[in-house]
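dumping this here before i forget
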Amino acid sequence: MNTIHIDRLRITHKDEVLVDIAFDIRRSLALVGQSGSGKSLTLKALLGLSDPSLEIVIEKRCDFEWERGKSVSLVPQNPFTALSPLTRIKDQMFLANEKCIELFSQLGLEKELLERFPPELSGGQLQRVVVAIALGSQPKLLLLDEPTTALDPASKDSMIGLLKTLQEKMNFSMLFVTHDMSVASALCEDICVINEGRMIEKGIISEVIRTPKERYTRALIDAEFKTRGFRN
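structure:
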C-alpha cells in the first residue's frame, strides 16, 4: 500500500478561495472539521462531483489510475438515500452473483438479502450493503463520508472493526471525512484538521488528540471526549 499524495487541492468560486489544502494518505487518514470547514467540498472535488461554478485544481501523485467508481470508491453518509428503494439489492450491485455472495459473506450479510429491497433492511444492514457496493470494484482508495453517523453505538463499533478487517484483506487506503473525533481515532492512523478550507493541524491521530497544538483542534476533541476521560 503506497502513499497517495494530494500535493494541492484548491477550490475557488470567482475570487474567493474556499479550500486550499494538501495532505498525504498513507494507510488511513481522517479529514476532520466542523460543518462548513470544507470537508464535503474536498470530498466532492476528489470524486469529480463539484458544482460546475467552482474552479478546481488538484495536483496528486499515486501509483494507480485515478478513476471514480473503480480505483476510487465512495461510501456515502446516508445509505437510505444512496440506494433505490424500488430495486432489489442484487440489481444495485452490478456484479456477478458469485462476487456479490462473496462480498456479503465478508461483510457478515446473509446472501438472501440480495433478493430484498432496501426498505426491508435495517440501517446497519444497508450501510454494509453500500460498503459492499463500494468495494465491488476492488478500489485502491476508499472515501468514507461519515458513514457511521446514522448508526447506533453498537453498530458504529461493528462498522469500524469491519472496515479495519476489510482493509487488511483487500489492501486499500482510506480517507475518512468526519466531524467525530472519537470515530476518527478508532478508525484512522493519521489526521488532518481543517477549518475554513485551510489545514490547521496534522499528524498521527493519537498524538494530535493527546497534545493538540491548535485551539480549534482542542475544541473538537473536548466536544467528544470531555466525559470519557480519553486523554487522562
